[in-house]
Design goal:
The protein has about 290 residues and is of the alpha/beta class. The protein has 8 helices and 10 strands. The strands form 2 sheets. An 8-stranded mixed sheet has the order 2-5-1-6-7-8-10-9, sandwiched between helices.
Length: about 290
């Protein structure tokens, strides 16, 4: 952790909702006038889309899949977090998504990476959103560098429903292919993704209030109105639970460290909880 160069990371698996959480953070950064160095976890994948497809065709699955630490440049991610905490800079690259029109217009091919380069200078903080922001293993300790680590963890059936819906409707995959991907990733999900949520400062877990017992036949993603959000704090001294209960209509405490809010109130809850934390990080930085 670094007082002068704080790092915020949102970690969660594919389909968990980290992208939506990232948009909430971006709005907060803009309203607070903060210049955040934005880094996507997919930038640290070891293989391009074509390379992964070739490996999968051979039955190798690119060190199994992107969930696996071996399929990512975890050493480079750790180096970025270390260097940013020390100097306020570091090296990263961008993964080119199909919707990244600016990168495609610049000549980059979807499914590939831009060259490695330095972060933009003079940022106020580093913001990471991806699969491995809280990794702690025998070889790596990413979590030690993160000042505010957020887990986004819908219950697993809902996570699968969201992934199937996104990948079939937005990315053009067949449902059978998405289900097979879920199956192929299961061991690495258990070994490399789930343990991170024990290192987070806060977990946001969306729980549906409708039947999702067979996620492979559900055609619609449960709406916010059909959900509750379970929010677990590692250190309750960091938040004013009484104020949150007053400000968020319909919220309750299920345990001394766990707040439950209606699904439509998730964005409000994130703002009320995270904005004061961001301000404290910035105040601490200014006094460093």
């Amino acid at each position: 952790m670094s007082r002068r160069h704080p790092i915020i990371a949102v970690t969660g698996s594919s389909g968990a909702g980290t992208t939506t959480t990232g948009r909430i953070f971006r709005r907060m950064f803009a309203s607070e006038g903060l210049r955040a160095a934005m880094v996507g976890g997919d930038s640290f994948h070891r293989y391009s889309r074509e390379q992964m497809a070739r490996l999968a065709a051979k039955g190798q699955f690119g060190a199994r899949n992107h969930f696996a630490l071996a399929a990512n440049h975890i050493d480079k991610l750790e180096a970025l977090f270390h260097d940013y905490g020390q100097t306020g800079n570091g090296h990263f690259r961008r993964y080119v998504h199909d919707e990244d029109r600016d990168l495609i217009s610049a000549g980059h091919t979807p499914g590939t990476f831009t060259p490695w380069g330095a972060l933009a200078p003079d940022s106020d903080l580093l913001f990471y959103e991806g699969l491995h922001g809280g990794v702690v293993s025998d070889a790596y300790d990413i979590a030690q560098y993160v000042d505010l680590l957020i887990g986004v963890v819908p219950i697993v059936n809902l996570e699968w429903i969201q992934k199937i819906h996104r990948d079939t409707h937005q990315r053009g995959y067949s449902e059978a292919a998405v289900v097979q991907t879920i199956i192929n990733r299961m061991e690495d999900y258990v070994q490399d993704i789930v343990p991170q949520f024990s290192h987070t400062h806060i977990n946001f877990q969306r729980v549906p209030l409708v039947d999702t017992s067979n996620p492979f036949v559900v055609r619609d993603v449960p709406t916010e109105d059909e959900s509750m959000v379970v929010i677990r704090f590692r250190d309750i001294s960091e938040v004013n639970l009484v104020r949150l209960l007053q400000m968020i209509q319909g919220s309750v405490l299920s345990r001394h460290d766990t707040l439950v809010v209606p699904g439509p109130k998730m964005a409000l809850a994130m703002d009320l909880i995270l904005r004061p934390m961001i301000r404290r990080l910035m105040s601490r930085r200014d006094h460093a």
